[in-house]
Each structure stands twice: as structure tokens, then as C-alpha cells.
Amino acid sequence: EAQRAQIQQELTRFETALLAEDFTLDGRHYSELIDLDSFVDAYLVNEILRNGDACAPLSLFVYKNEEGKLAMGPVWDFDLSAGYSATPGHQSPQGASLSDSHWFGRMLEDPVFRAAALEKYRSLDGFLEEYLAYLEDYREEMAPAANNNFIITYIGVNEYCNLPSDDPFPLEVDTLRDWLAERFVWLDENQLALWG
Fold this sequence. Notes:
Shape: globular
Number of strands: 4
Strand content: 5-15%
Largest sheet: 2 strands, antiparallel
Structural class: mainly alpha
């Protein structure tokens, strides 16, 4: 209970600073209360993949080492991302996804966060090519796991999934590859508008 109260207090301090007009609480910028790099990393992973679930607090993890700051991660819940979404706006590789989310939306109003996101994004130069090569290298290795996606469990089949006969796995990999290629083109062309 004492730890829970302490964590709630730290989260409240962070949110109070974040939502303040000048992003501060008691003279401390919200970025001093968190591991800013981990928040930037989580934001970029979710933004790059247009993960609509990242707008919901239930799909974000925050942790804290005993003597450390609040940190974000691990990232998860990507079943509705990379164009595979029930939300038409998130299906397209063009557009920003998280500008209206609770924390990230507010952070994107802050020049400190935007500058950190731009710097990190620019450090990813060459990542797309590496990732597309990764998809090709592991296409066959991932195929058995793809079949497991359609196993009916006690909660049923993922309602957003197509049946395996609708879109065979190799075609889905091609779709993901093409979507990511378009996404990175859009991000490269709009990086200054997003984070400059």
C-alpha cells in the first residue's frame, strides 16, 4: 500500500506538471520527473506503426525502479497497428496517430519532447531497410505462429482478423512490408511538421 501510494503520488506529480501551462510543477519540468528517452521511444514505436491502442491508457505500461524515474515500457498491444485496424484513419500509412492521445498529445505541444522525438527519429536512418530485410529473413520462421492467430479460444477469434483463407500469410507479410515502406516515406516527408 505504501508503494502504491508513492507511485500514485509520482504519477500525479508527473501529470500535473505535464498538464500545466508551462509544463512545470514546483519549478520542475515534467521531463525531469520521467525517463524522457523511454517515453520518446515508446511514442515513436507506436507512432511509426500507427498503433491506435496507444491512445488508450490500458495499452501503455509505466514502471519505476526503486531509485529511478518513471519510465515507459515495454511496448505491447500491436494487434491493431501497421494498417491493420478497425479505425479507418489508422489504416492509412499517412497521418499522425497520437496527437490527440492523453499524454503523448500534450507532450507533442512541448518543444523539449518534440526535439527529443526528432533527434531519435533521425537516428533511425537505415532502420527501414534493416526491418524489411528482417521480415524477409523470418517470413518462413513466422509462418507457424501465423496459423496460431486463428485458433479459437475461450474468448473467440480476434474479431478484426481475416480468416487465413482470406489473406494467406505470405500476402500479409507483403502487405506489411509495403505499408511500412509508405509509412516511412510519409514520416520522412513530415518529420519537421510533426517534431520540428
